[in-house]
Design a protein that fits this description.
This protein has about 450 residues and is of the alpha/beta class. Helix content is about 40%, strand content about 15%. The chain has 15 helices and 17 strands. A seven-stranded mixed β-sheet has the order 4-12-11-10-7-5-6. It is an enzyme of class 2 (transferase). Pathway: Amine and polyamine biosynthesis; ectoine biosynthesis; L-ectoine from L-aspartate 4-semialdehyde: step 1/3.
């Protein structure tokens, strides 16, 4: 009898990935750059269906303040499930919602929390951004909005327009302080002051063509824009400019909130109190939840003016309340500031060794490494062109070494680190060791953007 050769079956995870590529839309994003199939996770670690373990520095795009499956989050979810409470309640009052709102208000700037209203929105942050725009337009009777270059506020129509991803006649985009690529060629305090003056001039010059807006929206740290922290002095100037002209200030804390930047809310660093604050991601404790909190004077819209079927997610509220309480009780915001500063110091040392690193920056555990073409000429401020090819190679080399990172920035050339606030010093070192090793490997094999020699370490020859 003839023997037939048995062809080994492909691993199950390969079939899952293949079916995903065949069935899901061309708009899928993370799945393209991270071809893994997570099956288990705890804290910083994800285990794939292929048996490999990864350190997760994406954290659900900043959603997982406590990492994956933290015990206090799981316990909060089990308590609701075991209680028999309804899971879907539209916008009805429940003990779970009341507990979440109470905990959230306890963390907010006191001046805002004392006389605030909350609107539960659809489950995504972009819906909360849309609600904020609708709120200030209703309250002011005006239409225009002011937003900033490099911003990211979501993917729905108005949020995308405010992010610069679509043209919209009612959105005016303003310069955001960005030391490494300063739009005024100065950087530092001078660059931030010029940006503030530009904003003030547009508002006060009757010939600027900019009508009095319904509101201004900004991020205290631009996340998707490349991890660019706004100077506290500039944030205070924006608050002064908007307050003096009765322009509601909307602060998008979707990614910066719940301790991420080293303060519970990023606005706490500067001491400003916004008129509207947009919250999502970490406030749901890993589950979908989005709200806006705003001064009661703005609460002039009619019942049903902003609604959504899935704005009563009881499991998310329970998980969110547990997360907020845990971060607050354990000082994880302060811990993020201290550990983030130490990680920045190590990243500065890495930058000193590699000409391909244009700048490292961040605040708390929201860190970025901007990669540039070392063979290109620097501009007058010392900035070199971005190198997205090298950034992609670093991201892939990180994944090969069991480290999950993502890219951001205007040219997708900023390697971003968003680890959970619960990481240990040893885990932080492991993250940076793997990143450094991945960078060294990538620069030795990746041609420059224009076909130049591979990027090399300072003091070495190609």
């Amino acid at each position: 009898m003839a023997l037939t050769e048995t062809v080994p079956a492909a691993p199950a995870h390969e079939g899952i990935l293949r079916r995903q590529s065949l069935r899901e839309s061309a708009a899928r994003t993370y799945a393209r750059s991270l071809p893994i199939v997570p099956v288990r996770a705890r804290g910083l670690t994800i285990e794939g269906a292929d048996g490999r373990r990864y350190l997760d520095c994406l954290s659900g795009a900043g959603t997982l303040a406590l990492g994956h499956n933290h015990p206090v989050v799981l316990e909060a979810i089990r308590t609701v499930l075991d209680s028999g409470a309804p899971l879907h309640v539209l916008d009805l009052a429940t003990p779970v919602k009341d507990a979440f709102t109470t905990e959230l208000f306890a963390t907010l700037p006191r001046e805002l929390a004392e006389k605030a209203r909350i609107q539960f929105c659809g489950p995504a942050g972009t819906d909360a951004v849309e609600a904020a725009f609708k709120l200030v337009r209703t309250a002011t009777g005006r239409d225009g909005l002011m937003a900033f270059s490099g911003a990211y506020h979501g993917m729905t129509a108005e949020a995308l327009a405010a992010s610069g991803g679509a043209q919209h006649s009612s959105v005016v985009r303003l310069p955001y302080p960005y030391d490494y690529r300063c739009p005024f060629g100065t950087g530092g305090e001078r660059g931030a002051e010029l940006a503030a003056r530009w904003t003030q001039s547009l508002l006060d010059d009757h010939k600027s063509g900019v009508p009095h807006p319904a509101g201004m929206i900004l991020e205290p740290v631009q996340g998707e824009g490349g991890v660019i922290p706004a100077p506290d002095s500039w944030l205070r100037r924006m608050r002064e400019i908007t307050a003096a002209r009765q322009i509601p200030l909307i602060v998008d804390e979707v990614q910066t909130g719940v301790g991420r930047t080293g303060a519970f809310w990023a606005v706490d660093h500067s001491g400003i109190v916004p008129d509207v604050i947009v919250l999502s991601k970490a406030i749901g404790g890993s589950l979908p939840l989005a709200v806006i909190v705003y001064r009661e004077e703005l609460d002039s819209w009619q019942p049903g003016a902003h609604a959504g079927t899935f704005r009563g997610n009881q499991l998310a509220m329970a998980a969110g309340a547990a997360t907020l309480a845990y971060v607050r009780a354990n000082g994880l915001d302060r811990r993020a500031g201290e550990l983030g500063a130490r990680m920045l110091t190590r990243l500065d040392s890495l930058a000193a060794a590699h000409d391909c690193i244009g700048e490292v920056r961040g605040r708390g555990l929201m860190l970025g490494v901007e990669l540039v073409d070392r063979d290109a000429d620097a501009d007058a401020t010392g900035a070199r062109p971005a190198d997205p090819g090298l950034a992609a190679a670093v991201r892939d080399a990180c994944l090969d070494r069991g480290l999950i990172v993502e890219l951001g920035g205007r040219h997708s050339a900023v390697v971003r680190l968003l680890p959970p606030l619960t990481i240990t010093d040893e885990q932080a070192d492991a993250i940076l060791d793997r990143l450094a090793d991945a960078l060294t490997a990538a620069v030795s094999t990746t041609p420059g953007p224009t076909g130049s020699s591979p990027t090399t370490m300072r003091g070495t020859t190609p």
